[in-house]
Every structure is written in structure tokens, then in C-alpha cells.
Write a structure and sequence with these properties.
CATH class: Mainly Alpha
Number of strands: 2
CATH architecture: Orthogonal Bundle
Number of domains: 1
CATH superfamily: Farnesyl Diphosphate Synthase
Order of helices and strands: HHHHEEHHHHHHHHH
Oligomer: single chain
Radius of gyration: 20 Å
Structural class: mainly alpha
Largest sheet: 2 strands, antiparallel
Helix content: over 70%
């Protein structure tokens, strides 16, 4: 199977899984549920859940065991996109070639749809941990090392999951705080490592921890993920400068217009591309 075929397979599996969490029942908050579905099922690369599944498959093949965590991370990502697009942050009108959530519905609904997706992610993970714990209770005190290890791994992930979201929010705050201002190299890297890199690193670590990777494997994959997370955001900075709006599904040039701190604004387009190549090279070198 080619890389593109494997990528498509992952995307199809994730989309099918996400469909299970769409709420279609008639209820007073139906419009809110529609707003959640609007963003969650709008498309996108599904990069973050794919990283969870692909990392897990480096060690094991039963990827259905990590599907709840892959779904949860995609919900968190979409929560961040909805809030990122709001007038008080980036004030974007389009995402994936469609009106952003607050444009399609309204600002209050968009805020609450983002909040609901974040909370739903926690519900999914905590439910999976609860069900794993109940397996231990079912054994009536008889030890099952595999299940006990699963519980330990999932509790570790739950903690890292919460910390990564905290870091993403911190990175987003610093990003908005420094709009239109001079920024140091240290703070620019801080923004990118937290706003985007923290969640991407989490995805790789989640897949590895769920598969019970050893300490050395986890350390190498974590370093790789840190580099790739930073590279991903630098590439996004570059595309915001010279990308194709039809392919990106969102306007090009917005970062410059609102004075965003990016690698392009700090170093120029050509130097940003050189930094991107170097960081990507370092990342792949770590896992060879």
C-alpha cells in the first residue's frame, strides 16, 4: 500500500469513528450539536489522530484500542480551531473552504460548540479508562498484568493530555498578546512549541504509550515529535504567506494583515524555509 493509500485509509477509519459521536436527537440544544458536527465533520487532514494510530502501529496492530484517544484529540483540535477563528482572536471568516463556525451560526454558539467538543474529548477518554478499570473489578482480585498496564498507560496519557491542552492555550495567549509587536526568537519558538507543537507531540506519545513502548523508544519518538511539531507550524507560517487559498480552504495573508508573530515575519520567507528544512531533517534523523 502506498503512502497516499495508507493515509486515505486512516482518514476513512477516523471519519467513520467520528460519525459515531455526532448527536442527531431532537433536544433543546440541537443547534449547539449541529454546530459541533459542522466543525468536527468539515474535513481536514486528520493529522493528529493519524499520528496516534500510526505511532501505535509501529508496535501493535490492534488500532481499535487507541481509537477513543484518536477521536478525543481530533475533538480538541477542532475546539481550538473554532476558538482560534473567533473575532477576538484571529477573526477568520473561512475554514476548510466553508464559513467558520461563528459565521455559520453565531459567536455565542461557536464558543459553546468549542467548549462542548473539549468536554466531549474528556468524556470519551474517562469513559475508556472507566471501562478498563471495570475489567479489573470483574476479575475479583485476580491479577492481570496486561489490564493493569493498560490502566497505568491510560492514566499517564490522561495527565499528559490535560497538560498539552494547557500548553496549547498558553501558546495561543502569547501569540495573541504579541500581535503587532517585536518578539524575541525565544518567545517565537515558545509560541510554536506550545500552540501547535504540544498537541502534535502528545499524539505521538499517546500512540507509543498505549502500545507500551519502552523508555528509549518513547524518548526518541518524543524528540522527533517536538521537531515535527515545530516544523508543522513553520510550514503553516509559510503557507499563510504564499499558499493557495483554494487548496488551503482559508485566506492567505491574514497573518501579515493582523501582525501575527511568525517565522516569516521574524526571519523572512527564504530563511523560514531554510529553518523548516533543518528542523525537519533533525526530526527524521532522531528516529532512524
Amino acid at each position: 500500500m502506498s503512502f497516499k493509500e495508507k493515509l486515505k485509509e486512516y482518514q476513512n477509519n477516523i471519519n467513520a469513528e467520528l460519525e459515531k459521536y455526532v448527536k442527531n436527537e431532537e433536544c433543546p440544544e440541537k443547534i449547539l450539536n449541529n454546530a459541533m458536527e459542522y466543525s468536527l465533520m468539515a474535513g481536514g487532514k486528520r493529522l493528529r489522530p493519524i499520528l496516534v494510530l500510526a505511532t501505535y502501529q509501529l508496535f501493535k496492530n490492534d488500532i481499535e484500542k487507541c481509537m477513543p484517544f484518536a477521536v478525543a484529540i481530533e475533538m480538541v483540535h477542532n475546539f481550538s480551531l473554532i476558538h482560534d477563528d473567533l473575532p477576538g482572536i484571529d477573526n477568520d471568516d473561512f475554514r476548510h473552504g466553508k464559513p467558520t463556525n461563528h459565521k455559520q451560526f453565531n459567536e455565542a454558539t461557536a464558543i459553546l460548540a468549542g467548549d462542548s467538543l473539549l468536554n466531549q474529548a474528556y468524556i470519551i477518554i474517562s469513559k475508556d479508562i472507566k471501562e478498563t478499570y471495570e475489567k479489573i473489578s470483574f476479575l475479583n482480585g485476580n491479577k492481570n498484568e496486561t489490564i493493569i498496564k493498560d490502566i497505568e498507560n491510560k492514566l499517564k496519557i490522561f495527565n499528559e493530555f490535560s497538560i498539552a491542552i494547557d500548553r496549547m492555550i498558553a501558546g495561543e495567549y502569547v501569540d495573541t498578546e504579541y500581535e503587532g509587536k517585536e518578539i524575541s526568537e525565544k518567545y517565537l519558538e515558545y509560541i510554536h512549541q506550545n500552540k501547535t507543537g504540544a498537541l502534535l507531540k502528545l499524539c505521538v506519545r499517546m500512540g507509543a504509550i498505549l502500545a507500551s513502548a519502552n523508555d528509549l523508544e518513547l524518548e526518541r519518538l518524543s524528540t522527533y515529535a517536538e521537531k515535527i511539531g515545530l516544523a508543522f507550524q513553520i510550514k503553516d507560517d509559510i503557507l499563510s504567506e504564499e499558499g493557495n487559498e483554494e487548496i488551503l480552504g482559508k485566506p492567505v495573508g491574514n497573518d501579515k494583515e493582523i501582525g501575527k508573530c511568525t517565522y516569516v515575519s521574524k526571519y523572512g520567507l527564504q530563511r523560514a524555509k531554510e529553518i523548516l528544512q533543518e528542523i525537519t531533517r533533525r526530526g527524521f534523523k532522531r528516529i532512524r
